[in-house]
Every structure is written in C-alpha cells, then in structure tokens.
Design brief:
The chain is of the alpha+beta class and 183 residues long. The chain has five helices and seven strands, in the order E-H-E-H-H-E-E-E-H-E-E-H. Strands 1-2-7-6-5-4-3 form a seven-stranded mixed β-sheet. Residues 1-6 have low confidence and may be disordered.
C-alpha cells in the first residue's frame, strides 16, 4: 500500500487529493481523510471545530472519561495559542483563523498513538459547509505500520461519531438562528 495514498471516509476525491498542513509534519505518513457536509455556514462550523480544544465530541465515555462534551459554544474557545492542548492528545502547531487548525501529538499522545498530525478545516460549500479532517499517521517500521492500521480503523469509528456530533450541533445552531422569533 502506498503510504501517501489517503484512506478516505466521506471526502470527495478533490478533498482527499488536496494538501493539508498536517501532511508534512510526520515523515512517511499514512494519510487519512475524513469529511462530512454540514447544513450551516462555514463560520459557525468553524466555531464548532474550535470546541475540540474543550472536549473530544466523539464517544464521551471513551474519550472524555464519561463527561459530556458541551452542547453549547464555549466563549473564547476560538481564540487559539500555539502549543495549546487540543482534544487532549494534540498540541496546536498552526491555524488559519476561521478556516483550519493543525496539531501534532503531545508527548502523552506520542506514547499512545505514535507521531500523528491532524488538520481540521471548515470549508464553505455554497450556503452550507464541509468539515474536512486530515490525519497524518507516522509509519516508519513494521510495528508502526500495524499501529497505524489499527489507529486508522479506530479513528474511523471515533471520528465518524465526532463529525456527526459536530454536524448536528452546528446544524441545530444554524436552524435556531434561521427560525423566526415570536413575541
């Protein structure tokens, strides 16, 4: 298998073929691309992607020690500082405010998953948007190849839940803003 060939869930061929900031942070990486359409403006979708600094939004009983991820936007969660923790196992390496953020596994994340970089992007799609996530998983030997393949399958389950949760929250908020107010 070509290590540079992305493993894809939900992404268009163009999204899977595109370069992301995470791609070059881990040498010889297996690339995983995940994406989902969101019936909400990209600015609102971006705010929900920033919430990953607060909680994981996947299966809280696994990723968040049983605590529920917030179902409202946390004030200030969209104000990033390089080096800040993201999703508990990543450290923020770069961001383009309103568009994408990229992080690399922290020392704890390295022990759990090895070298992994991740980019989350909120892409405009007409009046709606798309969340596109690229993971670059380090593959530098037989054991790391096996770890990367296991991580790819585990990530598919966890990230699918995460993206579906973020989509539902952004769409709920977009609907609330679009609903007419009654007196």
């Amino acid at each position: 298998m070509d290590k540079r060939l992305p493993m894809v869930w939900g992404a268009t061929p163009d999204e899977a073929a595109r370069d992301y900031p995470a791609d070059d942070l881990v040498a010889g990486a297996l690339l995983l691309t995940r994406a989902i359409s969101v019936a909400a403006p990209a600015a609102l979708t971006w705010r929900w992607l920033c919430q990953i600094a607060v909680a994981p939004y996947s299966y809280d009983w696994v990723d968040n020690r049983g605590r529920r991820s917030p179902d409202t936007l946390t004030p200030g969660a969209d104000r990033f500082e390089l080096g800040q923790a993201m999703a508990g196992v990543f450290l923020l390496t770069s961001y383009d405010d309103g568009h994408h953020w990229t992080a690399l596994t922290s020392p704890r994340g390295q022990r759990l998953f090895g070298p992994v970089a991740i980019t989350y992007a909120a892409e405009p799609d007409g009046s709606a948007s798309r969340i596109v996530c690229r993971l670059a998983v380090g593959v530098d030997g037989p054991l790391s190849r096996l770890r990367a393949q296991v991580l790819a399958w585990g990530d598919l389950v966890m990230m699918r839940r995460q993206l579906l949760n973020l989509k539902a929250l952004a769409e709920r908020d977009a609907g609330a803003h679009a609903a007419p107010h009654s007196l």
